[in-house]
């Protein structure tokens, strides 16, 4: 089952938002503006998408484990 990267990034961002909200309410006991939480959540979402894009772009470079094929016999001409 292959999940879309957008769904994965959304799940990560929602978990981040919940954890920051719990930290704000339980640990710090201070209210932060919702605008700041939304901005940070959007930043996390975009970071996941950017990280995935970079990994996909670098994957052809890192999968070069095969030996290069070289012709070593005498030529027929």
Any overview of this molecule?
The protein is mainly α. The protein has a domain of 44 residues. It is 69% helix and 0% strand. The chain has 2 helices and no strands. Helix 1 packs across helix 2.
Helical coverage, percent range = 55-70%
**How far is it from the N-terminal to the C-terminal residue, by CA?**
53 Å
What class do helices, strands and sheet pairing give?
Answer: mainly alpha
The largest β sheet comes out as: none
Low-confidence stretches: none
Mean pLDDT: 87
How large is the count of helical segments? Answer: 2
> How would the global form be characterised?
rod-shaped
Report the sheet-strand fraction: under 5%
Radius of gyration equals 23 Å
Instruction: Please tally the β strands and state the result.
Output: 0
Q: What are the secondary-structure elements, in order, as H or E? A: HH
Keywords: Membrane, Transmembrane, Transmembrane helix
Transmembrane segments: 6-22, 42-61
Task: Give the key terms.
77 residues; mainly alpha
Give a brief outline of the structure.
By secondary structure, this protein is mainly alpha-helical.
Give the secondary structure arrangement, pairings included.
Blueprint lengths: L4 H24 L5 H29 L15
Helix pairs in contact: 1-2
């Amino acid at each position: 089952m292959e999940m879309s990267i957008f769904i994965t990034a959304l799940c990560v961002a929602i978990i981040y938002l919940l954890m920051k909200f719990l930290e704000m309410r339980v640990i710090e006991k201070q209210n932060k503006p919702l605008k700041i939480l939304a901005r940070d959540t959007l930043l996390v979402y975009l970071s996941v998408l950017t990280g995935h894009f970079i990994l996909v772009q670098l994957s052809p470079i890192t999968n070069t484990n095969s030996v290069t094929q070289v012709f070593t016999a005498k030529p027929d001409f």
